[in-house]
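Q: Structure tokens for this one, please.
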Amino acid sequence: MTDLNAADLLTDELHDVTVTVNGAVHTARVPARRLLSDFLRHDLRLTGTHVGCEHGVCGACTVLVDGRPMRSCLMFAIQAQRHEITTVEGLGDSPERMNHVQRAFTECHGLQCGFCTPGFITTITAFLEDNPDPTEGEAREAVSGNLCRCTGYQNIVKSVLRAAELKRSEAEPPAAETAQSEESESR
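A: Here is the predicted structure, written as tokens:
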């Protein structure tokens, strides 16, 4: 992340920050100690990122920073300078355009109250980039850093496995397309 010295964080001085969030460039003047979670929620009005514990323990505030999961309550907005931030809003902005993880959560009933869901969605999205075909044990491990007080995690784990299936099926061409392509190549 951006190099800061301790003196920068101890002042009330405002700093210009330019951050790319969900593909859009945003510039703002913020106090040095403005957390990324507060910047997203209050300055940019992206309220899908939830703040639970404010200590990096629960995972509700997880966003993607350059594609990697990061607790936004542990990162200053000025540290996000020159980085790509993706919030849950950037993964799918309507029921018709949900990403594979969001669709899997819907299909497998992976949420109840929904407070923790954005953190799970972003965490799992990054996990499946690195591990597109996880075992049940790997899926459990992937979500072990996120807390949910409503579910017993069974449907969340099912959602991870279903999201992996959906992602793989999106990446594979339909069988008819594959057969036509093979037929064309043999000519």
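A few notes: The mean pLDDT is 88. The chain has two domains: 6-90, 95-170.
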